[in-house]
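batch_manifest entry 22 of 60
target: 1-deoxy-D-xylulose-5-phosphate synthase
source organism: Romboutsia faecis
requested by: lab member K.T.
priority: normal
notes from requester: please return tokens only, no post-processing; we will run our own comparison against the previous entry in this batch. if the run fails, retry once and flag.
--- input ---
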Amino acid sequence: MYKYLDKVNCPEDIKNMTNEELDILAKDIRKFLVKSVSKTGGHLASNLGVVELTLALHKVFESPKDKIVWDVGHQSYVHKILTGRKDSFETLRQFEGLSGFPKEIESPHDIFDTGHSSTSISVGLGIACARDIKKEKFDVVSVIGDGSITGGMALEALNNLGYLNTDMIIILNDNEMSIDKNVGAMSRHLSSIIRNSTMNKVKDEVEKIFTVTSAGNLIYKTASKVKDSIVSQFTPQQCELFESMGIKYYGPIDGHNIKELIEILNKAKKKRGPVLLHVITKKGKGYKYAEEHPDKYHGVSKFDIKEGIQPSNSKSISVAVGEKLVQMSAKDDKIVAITAAMPSGTGLDLFQRAYPERYYDVGIAEQHAVTFSAGLAKEGMKPYFAVYSTFLQRGYDQIIHDVCITKKNVTFLIDRAGLVGNDGETHHGMFDLSYLNIVPNITVMAPKDTQELELMLELSAELNEPVAIRYPRGNAYYLNKGEYKKIEVGKYEIIEEGKDIAILAIGNMVKHALEAKEMLLEDNINPTIINARFLKPMDEKLLHELCTKYKTIVTIEDNIISGGFGSRINNFIIDNNYNVKVENIAVSEKFIDHGNIDSLYEAVGLSSKCIASKIKKI
Ligand SMILES: Cc1ncc(C[n+]2csc(CCOP(=O)(O)OP(=O)(O)O)c2C)c(N)n1
Ligand SMILES: CC(=O)[C@@H](O)[C@H](O)COP(=O)(O)O
Ligand SMILES: [Mg+2]
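--- output ---
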């Protein structure tokens, strides 16, 4: 099956391989990646794009003495294959299996845990500065994509790096893609460099002349000589973007030419001060479907290699949100939609197609997205910022400072709220109920199912204040339980009457509570099930009734236990001196690993079975 891959178990195994052997190994690795990820799911296109780059890095540098820091880290599978973890790939992103991101606990070669984008230059600079204080000698390389470098943190780090003039190398892996097509002025500038580069110009001339005359050899040597000038003289090319910050720019460099990469990296090692290598790669390289659709093959579930990803007939909650927002926008031309580089993930790609003039993809820039939305609201627009819960953490100060203090009319569509599963601790949206609980002036709601989510979207359109609607990752689902009519702010819903115990479940935990009730009925326990639609404002009237009528109150939330929905109910009970027993069922105060969502719910005690057994114990 593989010519060389079976002999490679650590970076030392490739040190003496020739470029031709490395090219064959690259083919092996691509075959392995497609085969393995098609079985487990994971990030495919980004990894296919960095095979030669990763081989060259491990050929030239001595990891882990030299530090290679991967930005986001979704493209670190090749790095993991080369550093002794090839045989664990069938456990990729599974519960207690290999992580899909760099993990310090997994290998000394994983220098720093990543998952959120744009952190690698800050990390690299910190490591390099510590190295210099300790007067140690090793190289620091941060590998960052053209999408991730648009993140504010990366620009802050570049500014500081140029100022400190620290010895470190930045590899800008430019495939002109974020998850979807990359956006922004930086991306446009970098693409213009690629288009105008001598590398491409020479290539075009050679191809043009080569096809016209038979003097191919002569012209071919000329071309390689010109291309070599970037490599041999290693003179920084003009790129104001970085040079103006004191960062020496070299590029564009062919990110699939191992020979060129190794030569350039060896030269970069010898340079003093900050060096940026602009490496051009193709996202999805080597697998036809991924080359043609790098966005669809960015993050994949299991698929058939021959057929490729087949369209699924189930609709995601995000698509339902996108459809509803499009529908609402037909009647309200003040609605504008904002995403931070996640149009397809949040369903806003539907909005972009319907109302391109009222749609903004700001790049991987959540802080900017929040305050940009506040600016839009200032002038009477009705901005909807759709963002994953975990990534909204990046814009937390902006939520307080720019939206809530002056009650700007911004609605946050918080997608991937709660545990997300295979992406693990850097991606679980398990803090938003807590981090919003303490912010004044914002209404926070969570629907029991997708139909109620649409009703909440309709309600948000009538409100003129900060609003957040949080909903989980996954396919649209419909409980057909309880009522589905216009929602009143702060009103919970009694879904099923019972006795002795009142269960207040919020958001997707209503479904788990109803399933748990089915199990409890077998033990003659018949709890009342309340759909606590709002983290805040609370339904105080109903809470007073519940605390008078029931001896035990149970709260359930797909969120960390500290400071979330349950703690809000606890405060109500304490503040009103009710003598009721309270049980908060939530994610305990620790970070939760990756794994499929059902095994995680089981592990943290949020599965309906765990809920039922906890309530039985009460
Ligand atoms: C703060 C943050 N926002 C959004 C994401 C989601 N995300 C993961 S990878 C990615 C695109 C990264 O593009 P690029 O850096 O160019 O890497 P490529 O996949 O093209 O190699 C995005 C937006 C994230 N990981 N972190
Ligand atoms: C690496 C990254 O942050 C994204 O690719 C993320 O993994 C997408 O998550 P979903 O699969 O939930 O859209
Ligand atoms: Mg990219």
